[in-house]
Amino acid sequence: MAGGPGGSGAGVNSGSMMVTMLISAFAAFGGILFGFDTGSISGIIAMKPWLANFGQFGELPGCETPGATTCETGYYLSTGNQSLVVSILSAGTFVGALLAYPIGDRIGRRLGLMFATSIFAIGIGLQLSTIFGAFVAGRVVAGLGVGIISCLVPMYQSECAPKSVRGFIVGLYQWAITIGLLLASIVNESTKDRGNNSSWRIPVAVQFAWGAILCGGMFCLPESPRYLLLKGRDADARKAMGKLTRQAPDSIAVDQECLDISMALEAELALGKTSYADCFRGGEARNGLRTWTGIMIQGMQQLTGINFIFYYGTTFFERSGIANPFIITIITNVVNVVCTIPGILMIDRAGRRSLLLWGAVVMCTCELLVAIIGVTVGTPAADGAINLPAQRVLIAFVCIYIAAFASTWGPIAWVVTGEIFPLAIRGKAMSMSTASNWLWNFGIGYATPYLVNPSSTGVNGTKTANLGVKVFFLWGATCFTCIVFTYFLVPETKGLSLEQVDLLYRESSIIGSNKYRQEMLARDETFIHRDGGLPAEKPLESKHVEDAHKEQV
Asked: Do residues 24 and 161 touch, judged by C-beta distance below 8 A?
């Protein structure tokens, strides 16, 4: 085996690999919480009992559109309230992601996740209310919990997973999100025809189970050894590392793992205490480049337009003239789940940088083709006639686009932000990066109805951009930006420990990172072994660790 969790490359025995993978992979369950909530709300707000509680009664939207022959009345949700209910979760997650650093730094990654799950449960409880204000407040509170979880999960995974499978482990978080989306659509389909409030309360209440599983599991797992070393708790760090590696806390293998982490930490702490401003400074560590890379890659993951499909896909397909929009939505969810699997399996083989580049190229191509087909032959004719071959091609390219996202930008954005930051600023930088994801998530979720929906008149009328399928020109342009961004700002970190990633940033260019990475692995370069020798200064570790290292040398 190539090495333990961020180790020097000497590694631990193969029997510990499976245990470590299971421990760090379990944290990915946190993705279920976000995925299920995202997937369920789109169905919940369309259920008649929910609309009877929270909607308004009157002429249903569409009466004023040209060609409408009848005007039906009933309960419906205005464009403004639709934007608010769907996107307000992301406003809470934005704040939660920023709070993840002080929480994770003060009480740890493990206890921080348990605390966040408790906040999430309170938010779910509020969403069972039949008062609109309480429901919206519940979405915000649940968002706070999800935001903290979305930052601490990849952080915990990156700090605990073996470096040879770190991309796969962190990628499981994105896969859990896709599974949550699919489970939500299944639960919604099972309850949507109930004639009372249980139709929407059951999908909401099911989320208590996901929170209980995550909280109970984290109660049994060890704290991140890197966090414990950062706090000077050497003995606790060895115990945690021992659980991860299935070695005795005073073993040589555990000592070397802790020593390498401490050496990297010493180089960072030599610069003094870090602040948020230090996250954007240059210097040898290139913290500013790393922080902006994390912020931008999370923002661009949202700007690929993927949540347009999962937030408003059913409505979009229906207005595009597709006969069975609900079935198409189910298909897109299945594609998302299935295609994430080869993606997370390839991360540690094909590499982060190359997959991001190819993924952005495929997405850009598909989105531009969808837009061109949609504005030429894909939309219904004036007499209502539908070009079925064009519709099928449009759906096919949407599915290819989702497959490209699911196997590249979906999981890899989380992997990159989980491994590019040095330990001294990791909490702050990851919280800002994750907050960027949620900020763009909120903006896109709130703005999409105003971008895509047709304008309406009357008392409840709303002026919109009415882009329809033309919105894919916008997503295609942003995906082209993703190509340029990846080429110039995302290094290749495949197979490196977190400490080796730190060295790569210090000693290599971004474009030349893959070549330098290969050279680093060939000579097993770490903070302990640099240029074939030992560091000039003694590590900030115990005498026990120092003696253990001398014995190995």
From this structure: yes
